[in-house]
User: Which sequence fits this backbone?
């Protein structure tokens, strides 16, 4: 396994766990989960490619799947929008990672929980 993948996933997971409120669960891998008991951010690796920014670097394209625990209309939207705000703030924070995000798109997780998907790129240096 490429050590940079572990580093990119691990570094992004660590940054989110450090910068998000303690009542948010961060799951480093995409997997099917039961409806979450608390706000959740799941990392899903979608693509790895050579970086166009710098020779010898790789871009790891993750989708951050933000899942609200509440499914009640109104309350779920408030929870999800707060989670989205916290995640975007964390991505913009100076955490030593070369991270970019493009947009947040509304989604639904497991046909029940309101969610957002945020495409995020982590650029890593060749080790």
Assistant:
């Amino acid at each position: 396994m490429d050590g940079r993948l572990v580093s990119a996933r691990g570094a992004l997971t660590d940054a989110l766990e450090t910068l998000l409120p303690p009542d948010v669960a961060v799951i480093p891998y995409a997997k099917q989960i039961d409806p979450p008991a608390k706000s959740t951010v799941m990392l899903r690796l979608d693509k790895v490619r050579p970086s166009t920014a710098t020779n010898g670097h790789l871009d790891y394209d993750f989708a951050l799947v933000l899942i609200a625990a509440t499914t009640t209309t109104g309350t779920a939207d408030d929870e999800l929008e707060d989670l989205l705000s916290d995640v975007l703030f964390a991505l913009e924070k100076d955490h030593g990672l070369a991270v970019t995000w493009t947009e947040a798109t509304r989604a639904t997780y497991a046909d029940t929980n309101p969610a957002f998907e945020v495409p995020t790129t982590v650029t890593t240096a060749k080790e």
User: Anything to note?
Assistant: Residues 31 and 42 are 8 Å apart (CA to CA). The domain at 3-124 is CATH 3.30.2000.10 (STM4215-like).
